């Protein structure tokens, strides 16, 4: 729509060269189709993404933990549903350990590789994995999605209550 607007303004000679020097675009906040981001699901999705990347690049891992991770994810969901939170947390920790093992194995593989022409996609995924492994509950720039790491939480809680982000002075509301 914006492109058509510019084309019609250009045809009617309403635009000048100086108008194209700087563009200001006012955008609204767009919702994304992202499920509720539990750490467990993020660990599992990142593990799957890293194993798919290693398979594509023909990098041999000692163990991909793909099948163990699938079982662990199912166990974690079952424990959480049954309100067995300690067991659920243990399964989440296990998934994080699996992801950490694959992450460090890939880091060692990249360091051991003498060729410095590293693959950009793999390095980006490793950076996202590192961010996921190091984030905590109180982190300010949390990762909410593997496939869209730029997504941010702009508000949480109830619509009539203000959202105060810890660690920063930014106050955002759901309005």
Defining key terms:
2 strands, mainly alpha, 175 residues, two-stranded antiparallel sheet, 50% helix
Brief summary of the model shown:
The protein is mostly helical.
Question: How would you characterize this protein structure?
Answer:
This protein has 175 residues and is mainly α. It has a domain at 39-134. It is 50% helix and 2% strand. The chain contains 5 helices and 2 strands; from the N terminus they run αααααββ. It has helices spanning 2-11, 39-57, 66-81, 85-112, 120-134, and strands spanning 163-164, 171-172. Strand 1 and strand 2 form a beta hairpin. The relative contact order is 0.11.
Strand % is: under 5%
Following the backbone from N to C, one meets helices and strands in this order, namely HHHHHEE
Number of helical segments with 4 or more residues: 5
User: What percent of residues adopt helix (DSSP H or I)?
Assistant: 40-55%
Question: Roughly what is the average pLDDT, rounded to an integer?
Answer: 82
Largest sheet: 2 strands, antiparallel
Shape: flat
User: How are the strands of the biggest sheet laid out side by side?
Assistant: 1-2
Provide the gyration radius in Å.
22 Å
Distance between the termini: 27 Å
What is the number of E strands? 2
The SS-based structural class is mainly alpha
Task: Catalogue the unreliable spans.
Answer: 167-175
